[in-house]
Specification:
Blueprint (H helix, E strand, L loop, with lengths): L1 H11 L4 E2 L30 H13 L2 H4 L8 E5 L2 E4 H12 L2 H20 L6 H32 L1
Antiparallel strand pairs: 1-2, 2-3
Helix pairs in contact: 1-5, 4-5, 4-6
Length: about 160
Amino acid sequence: MTSSISEAIVGKHCKLCEFTLSSLFIDKTKYHGFVDKLPKKLKLEKLGEAEFVEKIQNLLDSDLLEVSKKPYGKIYHVEVEGVKKPVVYDLLCEIFLHVDPESRAKSFHEIIDDYYNKVLSENGVTEDEFKLQVKLFLPYAKLERLYQFWQEELRTYAV
C-alpha cells in the first residue's frame, strides 16, 4: 500500500516547476469556521479544545511570506485542479489522506525518504532543505486531513 502511494506521487511529480512561496496554495477561507463545528468525538490527546482551536487559528493567520525567508531551497510545485501547490505539501496531503494511521506511523519516513531520493534530490534540493519544507508544510497537510474528516462526518450525518 505505502509503496503504491509513493510510486503514484513520484509519477505525478515527474514534471516540476520552481515555485515562489505564497499563501495561495492553500484556500484558508474554507478552514475558517469549520473548527468550531468539528465532532466532539474527535480525540484531542495533547491539547485542550480551546488550545486546539487557537493553534489552528494561529496557523491560518501565519504569514508564509515571513516564513519564506528561511533557507528552504528550491520549492517546486505541481498543478492540482488548476492550483499550483508545493510538491512537498502535495506529498504530505497524499500521505495523510490516503494512508491509514497505522501504516502511516510505520512508513511515514520511508515514504518521504523515498520521495526525496527519487524526485527532489535529482532537482537540486538538499536533504536539510527538504526536511525544512516537510516541517513547514506538515501542519497544513494535517489541517487538510482534519478538514476532509469533517467533510466525511457531514456526509455521514446527511444520509
